[in-house]
Amino acid sequence: MDYDTYGSSAVELAIDLANAELDPPDGVVAFLTAHEEWFAPGTSFHLSPGETAQAAKTGQLIRAVAVAESEADVLTRLNQLLALARPRPYATDHDGELHLHYARPDAPALEQLTTTVAMGLSQVVVQHGWQRLGVCSAEGCGNVYVDTSRNASRRYCSNTCASRSTVAAYRARQKT
Ligand SMILES: [Zn+2]
Ligand SMILES: [Zn+2]
């Protein structure tokens, strides 16, 4: 599986949003600033309180898709997310490679964010299967992830959680 294209790599923005601490008032702006390469140049990150709340809700919707345990639930929740998207795709080669962006470049930051994550997440679900999304198995983590491994064997959000769990399992075996 190849996530090199924007179409699928946009799912990484969705996963980041679902896992981000979006505490008011500055959490969402900090998130946007840390991910500014996803937004058209000149996009303002000054959000109203309503927009900030909507961005946080979008993160919760992504999480709801990732934790759903049946295809029917994934589709229901994915379509809730897609209903917030305002796609107006355009082709660009701004980074030297021809690819599509999903939101119009003059859209407000929230519209660009919602549209990009909804389209990126749904691309992965329809192309690679809803089982590719999951929740980290490490104790006390709870981050969601997209499984890009060849054999769909991923269980952790990060290498940190994977090795932490390996160590914990080893210690548990030593005790018994
Ligand atoms: Zn681009
Ligand atoms: Zn984790």
TrEMBL record:
Domain of life the protein comes from: Bacteria
Q: Which SUPFAM superfamilies match?
A: Jann2411-like
Any one Pfam family here would be zf-CGNR
Question: InterPro entries of this UniProt entry?
Answer: ABATE, ABATE_dom_sf, Znf_CGNR
Q: Which part of the chain is the Zinc finger CGNR domain?
A: 132-174
Q: Spell out the protein name for this chain.
A: CGNR zinc finger domain-containing protein
